[in-house]
């Protein structure tokens, strides 16, 4: 299928920031203090540092915020909204596991919390740590969401299938948690920041050549995240590098989703085996 | 953010004095051989670090499990005589997140035993393995400690507001500035140095506080000769711009945080 980006852009770039406050650690049954206190960093240091960098770069971003973190750091969430960025949903307690029948209730709970803080309901969701079930899409649609950024099986946006049929009022905006995410490098392989930057530049270059969709995932915390001065500078330098390419469009994910829904013939539907 | 290159950063070199207290958590004293022998390197590693700190004229903070002080009283004396700060690192490397009702007593015994060995009240405490409970800070404050250094949630030392005292500070650590983080996953010396330099340069560019956490051990620590040479290069890097780094012990960093709070 032949796709086009807004303004005939060669490549769309989304900077997405998964808030991951203490909810991430609590969901793993850790006491979010001491060496597990990394989740207290976003509200104090990481988010202000990102907002300042994004303002200087003059680009919009998408922040995915777990409901629990929004409850505990409401001013932090409001500061993101005031700066013009998108707030998406990201679980209540960053549930990376199957929550069973409680899932709709938890999605609704986070939805209420975020709607109140942001002044408008979120329209996008990203699964926390890969946790998603057959119930998720159904619930998100009923709450009015228009996109999910959790799937790893395509390079471009695609329409999900529901009850065997394709739907065109909801789009999947794939994320790449193996090579466009800070976690694998700063936690799994402990790669020095300068090497992570070099790697992400290569990723962008290849995506650009294919007129692709570049969706970077970072976390404003310490530890596995990118909240520290050095690591925010990596994202800052990456953005400056990307800006040297002609025809790049920086967008929030909700803007990408609306573009896709307005131009349904450009996107294929979910690939199913068998 | 990065416009503040001229700022100076406060920086602490801290050492968790881990010897056989680590192995003694799982085996008895007569089994400290083979893969359980690493802890016996403590004197080799510590002597080497003391020599390096002397060369660089840096006063460090040594977090000592009381068990190590009992096993190596003369080493503790020597560290003290060199002018380094001695603080506590648990009694015998307890997991404070699981002590429950016993925690208050363990903290009190740790404070009393180490203060008695050092000959004065020790100011600081660091959780073994960084694990704390919701009640740890309150117990530390009521016992007589002046600061904790177990969290990793800020760019600067800060006064803890909800521990029952107005002059108790948190002196945060940084996972990426711990030898254990990288040596435990078998990173090379070059890569550890690269990580440390890059992390530090970012902190320094914004005037943030940094805390390096070392161990005298030969497995996850920096005690081996080749690693101490790498550490020497890192310290040279910290000192390459005159005035860019002010070395403080954790106690000084905690005291300064309380003084800053009072002057606001």
Structure report:
The complex is a heterodimer of chains A (274) and B (264). Chain A has 274 residues and is an alpha/beta fold. Chain A is built from 10 helices and 10 strands. Chain A has helices at 22-27, 41-57, 67-72, 74-82, 103-118, 134-142, 182-188, 193-209, 229-243, 253-262, and strands spanning 11-18, 62-65, 86-89, 124-125, 147-148, 161-162, 165-166, 171-172, 213-218, 248-250. In chain A, strands 1, 2, 3, 9 and 10 form a 5-stranded parallel sheet that branches. A 3-stranded parallel sheet of chain A has the order 4-5-8. Chain A is globular. By secondary structure, chain B is an alpha/beta fold. Helix content of chain B is 39%, strand content 12%. Chain B has helices spanning 42-56, 66-71, 73-81, 103-118, 136-143, 179-183, 189-205, 225-238, 250-263, and strands at 9-16, 61-64, 85-88, 124-125, 147-148, 158-159, 169-170, 210-214, 245-247. In chain B, strands 1, 2, 3, 8 and 9 form a 5-stranded parallel sheet that branches. A 4-stranded mixed sheet of chain B has the order 4-5-7-6, sandwiched between helices. In chain B, α1 (42-56) packs parallel to α8 and α4 (103-118) packs across α5. The longest helix of chain B has 17 residues, at 189-205. Chain B starts with 8 loop residues before the first strand and ends with a helix. Classes of the chains: A alpha/beta (274), B alpha/beta (264). Chain A binds chain B through residues 31, 33-41, 44-45, 49, 52-53, 190, 192-194, 222-223, 228-233, and chain B through 1-2, 96-97, 127, 129-134, 136, 150-155, 173-176, 181-182, 185, 187, 191, 194-195, 198-199, 201-203, 205-206, 208.
A few lines on this structure:
The complex is a heterodimer of chains A (274) and B (264). Chain A is of the alpha/beta class.
């Amino acid at each position: 299928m032949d796709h086009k980006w807004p303004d005939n852009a060669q490549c769309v770039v989304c900077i997405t920031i998964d808030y991951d406050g203490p909810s991430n650690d609590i969901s793993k049954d850790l006491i979010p203090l001491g060496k597990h206190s990394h989740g207290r960093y976003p509200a104090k240091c990481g988010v202000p540092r990102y907002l300042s960098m994004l303002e200087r770069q003059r680009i919009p971003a998408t922040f995915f915020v777990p409901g629990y973190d929004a409850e505990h750091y409401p001013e932090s969430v409001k500061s993101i909204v005031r700066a013009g960025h998108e707030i998406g949903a990201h679980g209540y307690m960053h549930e990376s596991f199957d929550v069973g029948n409680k899932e709709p209730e938890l999605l609704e709970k986070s939805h209420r919390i975020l709607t109140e803080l942001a002044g408008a309901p979120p329209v996008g969701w990203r699964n926390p740590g890969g946790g998603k079930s057959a119930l998720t899409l159904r619930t998100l649609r009923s709450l009015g969401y228009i996109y999910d950024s959790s799937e790893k099986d395509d390079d471009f946006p695609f329409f999900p299938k529901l009850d065997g049929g394709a739907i065109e009022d909801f789009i999947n905006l794939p994320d790449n948690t193996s090579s466009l995410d800070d976690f694998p490098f700063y936690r799994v392989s402990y790669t020095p920041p300068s090497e992570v930057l070099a790697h992400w530049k290569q990723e962008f270059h290849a995506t650009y050549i294919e007129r692709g969709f570049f969706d970077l995932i970072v976390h404003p915390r310490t530890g596995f995240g990118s909240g520290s001065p050095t690591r925010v500078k990596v994202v800052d330098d990456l953005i400056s590098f990307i800006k040297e390419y002609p025809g790049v469009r920086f967008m929030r994910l909700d803007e990408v989703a609306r573009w896709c829904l307005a131009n349904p013939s450009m996107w294929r539907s979910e690939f199913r085996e068998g | 953010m990065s416009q503040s290159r001229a700022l100076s950063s406060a920086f602490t070199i801290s050492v968790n004095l881990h010897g056989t207290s680590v192995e003694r958590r799982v085996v008895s004293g007569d089994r400290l051989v083979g893969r359980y022998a690493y802890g016996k390197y403590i004197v080799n590693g510590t002597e080497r670090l003391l020599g390096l700190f002397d060369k660089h004229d840096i006063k460090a903070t040594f977090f000592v499990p009381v068990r190590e002080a009992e096993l190596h009283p003369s080493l503790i004396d020597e560290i003290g005589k060199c002018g380094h700060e001695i603080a506590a690192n648990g009694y015998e490397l307890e997991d404070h997140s699981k002590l429950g009702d016993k925690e208050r007593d363990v903290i009190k015994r740790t404070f009393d035993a180490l203060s008695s060995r050092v000959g004065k009240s020790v100011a600081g405490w660091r959780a073994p393995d960084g694990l704390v409970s919701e009640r740890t800070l309150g117990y530390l404050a009521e016992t007589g400690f002046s600061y904790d250094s177990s969290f990793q949630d800020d760019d600067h030392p800060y006064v803890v507001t909800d521990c029952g005292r107005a002059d108790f500070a948190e002196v945060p650590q940084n996972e990426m500035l711990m030898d254990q983080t990288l040596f435990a996953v078998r990173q090379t010396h070059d890569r550890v140095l690269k990580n440390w330099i890059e992390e530090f340069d970012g902190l320094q560019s914004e005037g943030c506080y940094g805390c390096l956490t070392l161990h005298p051990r030969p497995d996850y620590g920096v005690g081996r000769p080749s690693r101490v040479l790498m550490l020497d290069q890192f310290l040279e890097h910290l000192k390459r711009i005159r005035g860019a780094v002010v070395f403080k012990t954790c106690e000084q960093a905690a005291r300064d945080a309380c003084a800053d709070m009072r002057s606001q």
